[in-house]
Write a structure and sequence with these properties.
About 75% of the residues lie in helices and about 0% in strands. It has 4 helices and no strands. It has helices at about 10-20, 20-40, 45-60, 65-75. The termini are far apart.
Length: about 80
């Protein structure tokens, strides 16, 4: 990752400095997701499909199967 600087109002800079590590990490994730969407040349549908494909591939790589999903869903009933 690379760092960039973006001017923000003083109250946001102060709030960020006062935030704990989890709040800062959450803010960074949110801002990265927003910037990625803002600068993306793909449509929202294309981005969603890419996310779903990536999630499916990661689940499969970790051994998550449709049968395990059924087991989890039945456990909530």
């Amino acid at each position: 990752m690379k760092n960039i600087s973006i001017p923000v109002p003083p109250y946001i800079a102060s709030a960020y400095k006062r935030a704990d590590e989890k709040q800062r990490r959450d803010a960074q994730i949110y801002i990265n997701v927003w910037l990625n969407a803002f600068f993306s040349k793909k449509s929202p549908d294309e981005r969603l499909i890419a996310i779903l494909k990536k999630a499916g591939a990661e689940a499969k790589a970790k051994g998550f199967t449709p049968d395990k999903l059924d087991e989890l869903l039945k456990g909530d009933e």
